[in-house]
Design a protein that fits this description.
Layout: H1 3-30, H2 40-61, H3 65-88, H4 94-117
Helix pairs in contact: 1-2, 1-4, 2-3, 3-4
Length: about 140
């Protein structure tokens, strides 16, 4: 995998790990109801990101096409969920709007990055032939 492509994959993995960490922190600080302002379906989605974000990062670092697909799915749906929370529910001020814009930009970037990464990622069922070592 060329160096610039490794940087793209590593950057998106870092973004996903950061996002997962934010959701874990919110879960730990919020206890049994970390998102009391949110409808149940939205709260459940945000809690699911504690697993989906790091899973997408791990698959991406493992050069799996599924990692890029999951990263796109997670970031696009996270942008939509944050948009609903910010504008649909009328919650949050400037910080929430800026955060939602950042996640939206990351989601659009992930869609473009997926295309750049695709030739270097393995489809399901394929095993790397280049031996052990770091994937990215």
């Amino acid at each position: 995998m060329p160096r610039p492509t490794r940087w793209i994959a590593g950057g998106y993995a870092a973004v996903l790990l950061y996002g997962g960490g934010v959701h874990v922190a919110q879960l730990l600080m919020g206890g049994r109801d970390p998102y009391p302002w949110a409808p149940g379906w939205l709260a459940a989605y945000f809690v699911s990101l504690t697993v989906l974000d790091p899973l997408a990062a791990a698959l991406l670092l493992g050069r799996r096409r599924l990692g890029a697909d999951l990263a796109c799915l997670v970031l696009v749906t996270d942008a939509a969920a944050n948009g609903w929370a910010t504008y649909g529910l009328g919650g949050g001020g400037t910080a929430a709007r800026v955060g939602q814009a950042v996640v939206t930009a990351l989601a659009l970037g992930a869609l473009a990055a997926r295309r750049a990464l695709a030739p270097y990622l393995l489809p399901p069922g394929r095993i790397r032939q280049d031996g052990p070592g770091p994937a990215v």
